[in-house]
């Protein structure tokens, strides 16, 4: 998606050869117009997939997921990373190792919101080694729900997550796929459609 790529090039900060900071429009301050465009793009790509719910992970997946849910007319559920006083039992949970925080978190959703009747689109802000997405797939398996596919705003194609998940036969759509982060520069994958 060209507008997203331009935003990454103009505002993204390469923190290391494996970490990109996009705090000015996605991970801290949020650009609502760009999120709306992102939502329309995912809604368009998954228009015929029979999606009934979107599942994401707090907190940075929520903005693009809500915009996609708004366009598709389906509810959005975000898995919680911390135990909450109001989310105590009747849960589906999975262990996820966090790429940015370097620690394992248990992610959970209430069993009330995803059932075997649902066809779910999984979304997240970044795809790195795939741990977050694999944790959410695990939760859908516990719920016996169908997986329509995965929608990722920024994939780091030089890390293994995308290949691992596609090799399992799942559909993965990404709006900007990064080939490398070297010398402070972002280089996108060549085959990426714009
Ligand atoms: P994975 O589980 O695929 O290894 O990593 C994806 C998760 O880690 C995402 O939910 C995202 O929040 C975070 N993440 C991974 N790589 C980056 C990165 O380069 N920049 C930022 N801001 N977050 C990242």
UniProtKB/TrEMBL annotation:
One of its GO terms (molecular function) is xanthine phosphoribosyltransferase activity. 5-phospho-alpha-D-ribose 1-diphosphate binds at residues 128-132. Xanthine binds at residues 20, 27, 156. It catalyses: XMP + diphosphate = xanthine + 5-phospho-alpha-D-ribose 1-diphosphate. It is found in: Cytoplasm. One of its GO terms (biological process) is xanthine metabolic process. Keywords: Cytoplasm, Glycosyltransferase, Purine salvage, Transferase. CDD domains: PRTases_typeI. Transmembrane segments: none annotated. Its main location: cytoplasm. Its EC number is 2.4.2.22. Pathway: Purine metabolism; XMP biosynthesis via salvage pathway; XMP from xanthine: step 1/1. InterPro entries: PRTase-like, PRTase_dom, Pur/Pyrimidine_PRTase, Xanthine_PRibTrfase. GO terms for cellular component: cytoplasm. It is an enzyme of class 2 (transferase). Homodimer. Converts the preformed base xanthine, a product of nucleic acid breakdown, to xanthosine 5'-monophosphate (XMP), so it can be reused for RNA or DNA synthesis. Belongs to the purine/pyrimidine phosphoribosyltransferase family. Xpt subfamily. NCBIfam families: PRK09219.1, XPRTase. This is Xanthine phosphoribosyltransferase. It comes from Virgibacillus massiliensis. The gene is xpt.
